[in-house]
Write a structure and sequence with these properties.
mainly alpha, 79% helix, 256 residues
């Protein structure tokens, strides 16, 4: 144990590493099987176990690895038009997020994302056909800006993608591609902002390996799931995540 502790950051025990690595594999599998959901679960685990300043950047690396492996498995099914528009917006969002100090309370951001997610699944959503480029440029700006401070904004992007009525494989590949862009830009931004990723190298290496394994296992469940079951599962996962965000916002507002 002492030998292992020598490779870990101060305040992080081998037991914590074990829990985080297992959670990384499990949540990567969840995301690969249902299209999303794992990021928020992993964020909750990391927030409870890791030092606060490290949560968002380390979570970003985990999500980059998870989504990169998921994308590699389904890259041929990617819808590239919205993805490329998303990239353009994401660059602007990352630049803004790296320069602007967010003054809004976290519960305001949580409420906004939670309401958007719930409305996207249960409200009347205007068709995005014909304007998907501009739509996803805006989604890229907002989603990437928010992820710099909020961590897991996958449901925000997933809500926009769900309006395109993609089949499960195209949806999964396209969502993975946008998340690779988003989290990749976030990791680069945190590096420029001075976060010492090298101090977390051992844990990050273990997380990367775990997410690759989890994504591979989860992808097999995706291929065995019908489009109808996938859409139903996705709807309810988004609903639970949206409601959870509103609950967290209410608790944060009350505590504040």
């Amino acid at each position: 144990m002492d030998a292992l502790s020598a490779f870990l950051p101060d305040g992080v025990s081998p037991l914590v590493v074990g829990v985080v690595v297992v959670a990384s594999a499990g949540t990567a599998g969840l995301t690969a099987a249902l299209g999303l959901g794992g990021g928020l679960v992993l964020l909750a685990v990391m927030s409870a176990l890791l030092p606060a300043p490290a949560v968002i950047p380390v979570h970003g690396v985990a999500q980059l690895s998870s989504n990169a492996s998921r994308f590699a498995l389904h890259a041929r099914a990617t819808a590239w038009r919205p993805t490329l528009w998303f990239l353009g917006g994401a660059i602007l969002g990352a630049l803004a997020g790296g320069r602007v100090a967010v003054t809004l309370p976290s519960w305001v951001l949580q409420s906004a994302v939670g309401l958007f997610v719930l409305y996207s699944q249960w409200g009347r959503i205007p068709s995005v056909r014909g304007v998907e480029g501009r739509t996803f440029a805006v989604v890229g700006v907002v989603g990437t800006f928010l992820t710099m401070f909020f961590g897991a904004t996958g449901p925000f992007v997933a809500s926009a993608l769900s309006g395109l009525k993609l089949d499960r494989l195209t949806y999964t590949a396209t969502h993975a591609a946008t998340m690779v862009i988003q989290h990749g830009l976030k990791v680069v931004a945190f590096g420029f902002l001075g976060f010492a990723f090298s101090d977390w190298g051992a844990l990050i290496a273990a997380i990367v390996a775990a997410t690759v394994i989890g994504s591979y296992v989860g992808s097999h469940f995706l291929k065995r799931t019908s489009d109808g079951r996938f859409e139903t599962g996705l709807k309810w996962v988004l609903t639970v995540l949206g409601a959870n965000l509103l609950l967290q916002a209410a608790l944060s507002a009350f505590a504040g």
